[in-house]
Write a structure and sequence with these properties.
The chain is α/β, with parallel strands linked by helices and 203 residues long. The protein has helices spanning 11-25, 41-44, 47-58, 77-92, 108-111, 114-120, 139-146, 155-165, 168-174, 176-191; strands at 2-6, 37-38, 65-71, 97-102. It has one domain (2-191). A 4-stranded parallel beta sheet has the order 2-1-3-4, sandwiched between helices. The longest helix is centred in the middle third of the chain and has 16 residues, at 77-92. The radius of gyration is 16 Å and the shape is globular.
Length: 203
């Protein structure tokens, strides 16, 4: 079982769906994903807080690896993640542990395939998001505004729903932090004894 650790209420249902989707895309027919542990972001960026929640999560029956995923907000993942990985791996050992920060926020990945999601809502001439999706502050609010007046983003419901509807190959092209997510998840799968295939496939 892969045990996620997340920050937000919406990630609790969304992240297991994303991990299982990545497993499917990488040719892994089945992977068990535990119900994510939630922790405040302020705890996840501190050694004691991060190691405390990892200690709880790694004790879950059947846990073979851990994935820590939360929003970068205004921080730079390249600056933050290396130290977080050291703390996380020390707490998780001997189990493998991946740490990923979504640039700005998870919802930036939805902006990365905005036209796909809008087409799902019946907008035939939907265009891609015109800017860098990971540069946008309040990506969640931007998703809500682009979906129209009748759409009000409810994290617990819409984050998992849009995770299912997203074209992750498109997101992979446009969102650097999601490429990191895919890379680290593949490494985690391999460390847990699976044999992930390269994804996206090399042309």
């Amino acid at each position: 079982m892969i045990q996620p650790i997340v920050e937000g209420h919406g990630e609790v249902p969304a992240v297991p769906l994303l991990v299982r989707k990545l497993a499917e895309l990488m040719g892994i027919p089945f992977v068990t994903v535990g119900t994510p542990f939630r922790s405040k972001r302020s705890q996840l960026v501190q050694k004691d807080g991060l190691q405390r929640v990892i200690g709880r999560a790694r004790s879950e029956p059947g846990c073979r690896g851990l994935l820590v995923l939360f929003d970068a907000d205004d921080d730079c993942p390249k600056d933050q993640v290396p130290q977080l990985v050291k703390w996380a791996e020390a707490a998780a050992a001997p189990l493998p542990c991946a740490v990923v920060m979504a640039k700005r926020e998870y919802e930036a990945w939805f902006l990365g395939n905005l036209e796909v999601l809008l087409q799902m809502r019946g907008v035939r001439q939907a265009a891609p998001y015109e800017s860098d999706p990971e540069a946008k502050r309040d990506a969640r609010g931007e998703v809500e505004s682009r979906f129209g007046r009748d759409f009000h983003y409810v994290e617990k419901e819409d984050q998992p729903a849009l995770t299912v509807l997203s074209d992750w190959a498109v997101v992979h092209q446009r969102c650097r932090s999601f490429r990191k997510m895919a890379k680290e998840t593949s490494k985690l799968f391999r460390a847990c004894g699976f044999a992930p295939q390269p994804w996206p496939p090399v042309a």
